Amino acid sequence: TENYLAKEFIPTFSFSNTSITLANDFDAAIMEVYYLVAAQHQEKGRLAEAAKWAEKVADLFDTPALPVSPNTSRVAGILLEAGKTEKSLRLLEGLAERVLALYRKTSATDLILTLDHAQYYLDLIKVVLKKNNLESKKIDEVIKSIENE
C-alpha cells in the first residue's frame, strides 16, 4: 500500500475543477487509506513514519474541502502525538469549519449534516483537544455557533 501511495496513486478530489469523482465522500476514502497506513506505523511504535504519512494526507487537503470523517481527527491525533501541533490544529480547525459549513448549507453533491452529526464530529475534535490539553478559539467559535442555531 505504501509503495502504491508513494509512487502510483493520483487522487481525484471532489473539489477538483478538472475531474469528476464517483461519490461525494471519495475524499474521506482518500483520508482513510492514508490514515490506515499511518495508524499501522503508530501501532508498531514507529511514530516518525506514522507522522510522515499523516502529514502527507494533511498536506493533500490544504483546501476548504477537507473531508468530514472520523479519520480526519484521528490523523490530527497522530500529528499531535508526533509533536506536529500547528499542523494538527490546522487540520482540526479546518474540520470544525467544514462541519459548520456543511451543517449550514446542504448540497446534493456533498455530505448532509444534521445537528446530531455535526455535534458528533465536533465531539471527536474536542476529545483530541482535551487528550492533548489544547484549546482553539476557532473551534470554540464553531461549537458556540452550532449550539446557538
Question: What does this 3D model show about the protein?
Answer:
This protein has 149 residues and is mostly helical. Helices cover 66% and strands 0% of the residues. The chain contains seven helices and no strands. It has helices at 2-8, 26-43, 47-60, 70-81, 85-104, 115-131, 137-147. Helix 5 runs antiparallel to helix 6 (115-131) and helix 5 (85-104) runs parallel beside helix 7. The chain is globular. The chain starts with a helix and ends with a helix. The model has no long low-confidence stretch (mean pLDDT 86).
The rounded Rg comes to 15 Å
Number of helices: 7
The CA-CA distance between the termini, in Å, is: 43 Å
- Uncertain stretches of 5 or more adjacent residues: none
Rough shape?
Answer: globular
Helix content class: 55-70%
Overall strand count: 0
Spell out the helices and strands N to C.
HHHHHHH
What share of the residues does DSSP label as strand, in percent? under 5%
Mean pLDDT: 86
Alpha-beta content class:
mainly alpha
Biggest beta sheet summary: none
Short description:
With 149 residues, this protein is mainly α. 66% of the residues lie in helices and 0% in strands.
Could you give the topology of this structure?
Blueprint: H1 2-8, H2 26-43, H3 47-60, H4 70-81, H5 85-104, H6 115-131, H7 137-147
Helix pairs in contact: 2-3, 2-4, 3-4, 4-5, 4-6, 5-6, 5-7
Key terms:
149 residues; mainly alpha; 7 helices; globular
